[in-house]
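Students often ask what a holo structure prediction actually looks like on paper. The answer is less mysterious than it sounds. You provide the chain, you provide the ligand, and the output is a string of discrete structure tokens encoding the 3D arrangement of the protein together with glyoxylic acid.
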Amino acid sequence: MATKTILALTPGHPGQLEALDKDYTILRLWKERDAEQAIKENASNIVALTTYLAPVRANLMDALPNLEIIAGGAVGFDHIDIQAAQDRQIIVTNTPDVLTDDTADLGITLMLTLMRRVVEGDAFIRAGLWTKTGFPLGHSLRGKTLGIVGMGAIGSALAERANAFGMHIVYYGPRKKDVPYPYFDDLASMAAKCDVLALTCPGGQGTKHLIDYNVLGHLGQKGYLINIARGSVVKQDDLLVALSNKIIAGAALDVYENEPNVPDAFFVMDNVVLTPHIGSATYETRTRMGAMVVENIRACLNGKAVPNPVTLEHIN
Ligand code: GLV
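The corresponding structure tokens follow.
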């Protein structure tokens, strides 16, 4: 009898693939010398696929005739073609909620790191400059206006934290939400009122290049950009120009347009803080995310309702 096989495009979260190893054959694609050949040889046995952020498009689905579920290991699913999956009656799942706090914590961390010049201060000491010269002043969070782009779970958690730091909160998104903060339906107008613009919206076509030179111009010379959403939300070339021309004061970025590639131009800018997509990257949260992937796959392959389905309604 053929063994049910799970195709893993990327290494799982802690414990994730080990938990599935017990009952299924796992094809760990990154370990294969010829990935395409490995998929071809196992195609008819592959009933489930799991990925963290590696893309899953229609051509891969077409190569797997018995695929029942694509279990995403992230809350975001812009790397999975949901329409193509739905057309082929393949279930898609994600890992919502469990990473909300850690991601919002990172948003605050980046804001403080950037505005209080923490990375610059570290470099200043290591370069032996403290004994020779003074260090420039940073900026307080208290009293500043934070504009949140995308008031979903992570946006709300960020707002809650920023509130505790004495910031005023405003937000932009496709629709007004039931939250006690002023809503803007025009992003540039909101940016003009903000000291900090923080991105917490989903990625994908609907938010692609939402932040361009025009919005950055409205944010202005004293404004900071924080991106903990997706690199695609920002027109990266426009951001580079805005930073080097001091159109905005600085940026702290956890996500980029073409990860893991980050333009060298950022590396020489002291008004930029860079982290390698670590919003959910704690042992505790990634372990929970891994457990959710396992639950979704097990439910699907046992003919039960999956706990975290993603459908086209989540996009529209
Ligand atoms: C990470 O970026 C996620 O979407 O979970």
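The first strand starts at residue 5 and ends at 8.
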